[in-house]
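User: Batch of two.

Assistant: Item 1 of 2:
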Amino acid sequence: MPNSPLILSGKIVSSAVKEDLTKRIAALKQQGIKPGLTAVLVGEDPASQVYVRSKERQSEKLGLNSQVMRLSEETAEDELLAIIEKLNEEKAVHGILVQLPLPRHIDAQRVIEAIDPEKDVDGFHPVSVGKLVLGLDGFVSCTPAGILEILRYYNIETEGKHVVVVGRSNIVGKPMANLMIQKRPSGNATVTLVHTRTPDMGFHTRQADILIAAAGAPEFIGAEMVKEGAVVIDVGINRVDDASRERGYRLVGDVDFDAIKDRVSAITPVPGGVGPMTIAMLLSNTVKSAENSLE
């Protein structure tokens, strides 16, 4: 039984990704192209504000042409769609990101579908999703793409392994399952996807060689749900009250880290695991879009 698991650091992997991106951005600039990413933020959601600021800082640090459009909570859906249409036409914009969640009066799916698939760096457009399912080259949703990059970086074999994904969201669960079944390196796995309506979820999670938890519930995965020696990828990031902390809370994942760390062979921490990879892969998709514009 492993006692000292390998800690899969998203900070380390994202640094490696950005180092590669720096070279690719420099090559693009020699051809007169500066990759451009425009984020559109509607409303005052605190988590979205923090996330967009982080994207903005990291984009600028890498030398991307970074722009954030901050719109009021009352922005009409048609007004937002008109902005997206304009961004679709701008050659200097290679990536368009509309930060979710959107205010309730705006149809998020309609907004996603309005983005030019060639600029869909979030990987949410039906064209991007369809390409993923078919195994065609396209933009992959950033969090699943980041998880794949972590597995590659640490040479974690997926071929012939049993991958269990907890959660069926369009952002993580579904694209993650589709990535893992692809007939290519860092794929070729047998995949089980479980969710809130799965009877005896623990039966399935205990079969996992690689367990990917994207349940959205703090410390939901306990020791009794994990096979000894498994690799665990924790996608969750949840605030839980903690009076002992100065800020009154602490961040935990969907996995009970302390309870399972002595059972597993490798695990991502929270924070510092999957989180840094999401932004790194957004930047990677933007650079890829800029490279595609040369073709």
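Item 2 of 2:
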Amino acid sequence: MKRLLILGGTGDATKLAREASTLPDLEVIYSLAGRTSKPNLPDCMIRISGFGGVEGLLSYLRETEIDLVVDATHPFAAIMADHAGKACNENNIPRLKYCRPAWAQDVVSWISVTDYKTAA
């Protein structure tokens, strides 16, 4: 049985974990940083906490014998994405980075501002 670690925290990641959990011969572990008080969790193994940088993630991948990683973290989670890339490369573990498409202004209405004060 293969072990898949999904680095989550987005609705897309939750949907992916739910779907992946239905596949035969695949154990899914869904990981969250723990910043949301009541996260919407998929029905699979859940891990909530940080890893402790690249070294911590390296150790986790080895100890839990992860075969595959999907990085479906928030687009602003650049540090986690960087750590995942480095740890997977170091352990020679295949990693897929899920990049959701940018919002299209003609589909989602928003107003652009230059700073937080203007937004407020």
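The chain has one domain: 2-119.
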